[in-house]
Amino acid sequence: MTAGSAEQPIRFEPEEPCPPSIALLVGFQGAALVVAPMVLNVAIAIRSSGLDDRHLTWSVFAAMLMCAAITALQARQLWRFGAGHVVLAWPAAMFIAIMVATVSAAGLATFASLMIVCSLLQVGLAWWLPTLRRIVTPTVSGTVTMLIAVSVLPIAFDTVSDLPDDAPAAAGPAIAAVTLLVSVIVTLRATGRWRLVAPFTSILAGCVVAAGFGVLDGDRIVNAAWFGIPEMPALSVDLTPSREFWALLPSFAILTLVLGLKTISDGVAIQQGSRRVPRAIDFRQIQGMVSANGVGMLLGGLAGTLPPMANSSYSLSLINLTGVAARRVGAGVAAVTVALALFSKFTAVLLTIPGPVLGAYLMLAMGMLFVSGCQTVLRDGIDPQRALVVALASALGLGLHGHPITQELLGDDLGGLLANGVTIGAMVAIAMTLLLEATNTRRARLEVTLDSASIPAIDEFLTRLATRLEWSEASALRLRSAGEETLASLLSQDGDADGSERARLVILARPRSTMVELEFIATTRQENIEDQLAFLTEESAVPTVENLSLRLLRFHAAAVRHKKFHGVDIVTVHVERSR
Q1: What DSSP line would sit under 89-123, residue for residue?
Q2: Are residues 357 and 471 in the same domain?
Q3: Which of 451, 475, 450 is nearest to 463 (CA)?
Q4: Is the pLDDT reported for residue 7 higher than 60?
Q5: Does 271 share its domain with 169?
Q6: CATH number of the domain that 493 lies in?
Q7: CB-CB contact of 12 with 283 (8 Å)
Q8: Is residue 225 part of a domain?
């Protein structure tokens, strides 16, 4: 989604200051979007884990404060933490199933320990993103996302029957059906701001039906104070990792990686939707967004609740409907969310929502998550190799989920913990991706200095590659010229680098059916090449020395993508074979 598709033009871009009154008003709208999902996700996780009402009230309060803090951090961008954009945070629904399994099997202290450990992994993913980008690929991330959605759905159906023992048998299914039906109708028929109230409308309809069956309990609302801080339950961290900790660690690590990959996709969408004129994606800000997730996981572990994560759908909806993408809005959302967290009566109203309504909400949310996983898999296209990865990982993940064969091999306790479809599917997908990378014998690699003296070595490297691929003389010339002009463009970016030691340049060549993908991995300091190419219009003046290499590169290459990370730049160039 780009700015051009928004319902309103962008009035304030992220770096532009907007009046505090506008920031607070838009912040109120943003908080209104996410506060209900905040409470519902946490309520489902805590109730399904079998924890008491004191844990429920505390967890909701803590989750709202954490989401406010992460939303503010994403807008503020402190050092390498934060995206510098309006990023609305909410509790990660993808962690519901694993929180339920962990708390039920090993206790809340083990869950807290795993979250704290994986918060470091999330920050590590952000800092090592350039290295891991070809291992934890969109194919892997999308496949695991689909498996997560499937694994959470049983919890949604169990929640439908979460009613008093004397409730009519038809109450749960009827309440859930009405909730889903109203949500679908409002979502399909409503437009603009009315579309945003679809969740509230469906929840209200479900509560009305629940009241008709006599299963809506309002005692929590009556007994709740108007304002205050709930009592903190006994929280702890297991400092002596148990057998269950080590058995569950792979599942948490994989979910942490998937959370990071989904955040990358969300960050790309938010950057594109926050600009009047689309720009190349700044992956340094993406790294900051993922690092902020690590802070959220740390807070979630300490508070014993779900970790916060970015929500691109709500973020873009807010930006599109208001036209305000200024960073100050993040502070406005955080302030309003903190105020609502202290408004105990409001939280009590949301916690009174009956189980069947929560179950219907979770069914729809997991269905959307499954579709999001499919879209992620399809984003880079499906070739036979990627199709095999998705097929085998999905088959083993779904087939072995809860299967007794794991208990027969590993014992009842350990096998029961490891019989998780998400873990199995993710491990298969990552292993196959590593295997495909290792067996790709056609890949060629060259390492030189980022210097004009490296031109002969690069030219010889690309000439050998063209000869091996049996390309024509014209195709070989195009490949060599693209390599030379890419180097020249990188050198123009690094021209003011200080220090006597030149940066290293690694070139990776991956032949495809009718083209070659060249990756130039180096360190530069200035503008994004992809942005500069976009500014070179056909109506521009006569080429100058400064932009001649860029113009030649655009002529020789079929596509150019420039990803700027902290400490490294990756320029991907596609060169097609002549017909």
Answers
A1: EEE-GGGHHHHHHHHHHH-HHHHHHHHHHHHHHHH
A2: no
A3: 475
A4: no
A5: yes
A6: 3.30.565.10
A7: no
A8: yes
Instruction: Please tell me whether residues 137 and 257 are part of one structural domain.
Output: yes
Q: What's the total number of domains in the chain?
A: 2
Instruction: Provide the residue count of the chain.
Output: 579
- Residue 448: beta bridge partners? 505
- Strands in 37-97 per DSSP E: 89-91
> Same domain, yes or no, for 288 and 375?
yes
DSSP lists the bridge partners of residue 561 as 572
If asked whether residues 92 and 22 sit together in one domain, one would say yes
d(CA 349, CA 352): 5
Greater confidence (402 vs 509) lies with: 509
Instruction: Quote the pTM value.
Output: 0.77
Residues in CB range of 335: below 8 A, 6 or more apart: 24, 27, 68
DSSP per position, 293-362: HHHHHHHHHHHTSPPEEE-HHHHHHHHHHH-B--THHHHHHHHHHHHHHH-HHHHHHHHTS-HHHHHHHH
Which of these three, 339, 358, 382, is where a domain ends? 382
Q: Which is higher by pLDDT, 419 or 474?
A: 474
Q: Alpha-carbon torsion 32, 36, 37, 42, what sign?
A: positive
For 96, list phi and psi in degrees, rounded to 5. -60, -50
Please say if the pLDDT value at position 556 is more than 90. Answer: no
* Range(s) of the domain holding residue 453: 444-576
Span 488-540, pLDDT tens digits: 888 865 554 444 456 788 998 988 778 888 989 887 655 566 555 555 554 44
Half-sphere exposure of 171 (CA within 13 A, CB side): 22
The residue from 382, 398, 421 where one domain ends is 382
Considering the domain architecture, whether residues 16 and 86 belong to the same structural domain is answered as: yes
* One domain for residues 358 and 497: no
Residue % of the chain over a pLDDT of 90? 20
Structural domain contains residue 417: no
Query: Hunting for tokens 């304002």 — which residue is that?
Result: 227
Burial class (CB in 10 A: 0-12, 13-18, 19+), 456: exposed
Both 272 and 348 in a single domain? yes
Report yes or no on 499 lying in a domain.
Answer: yes
Q: Which are the contacts of 243, defined by CB distance < 8 A and separation ≥ 6?
A: 413, 414
Q: In angstroms, rounded to a whole number, what is the distance separating the alpha carbons of residues 23 and 7?
A: 19
The predicted-structure confidence for 182-206, as pLDDT tens digits, reads as follows 888 887 777 666 666 677 788 888 8
Token pair recorded at residue 323: 């036209």
- The two tokens of residue 481 are 């010229």
With respect to residue 142, please indicate whether it lies within any of the assigned structural domains: yes
List, for residues 131-153, the tens digit of each pLDDT value. 777 777 778 878 888 888 888 88
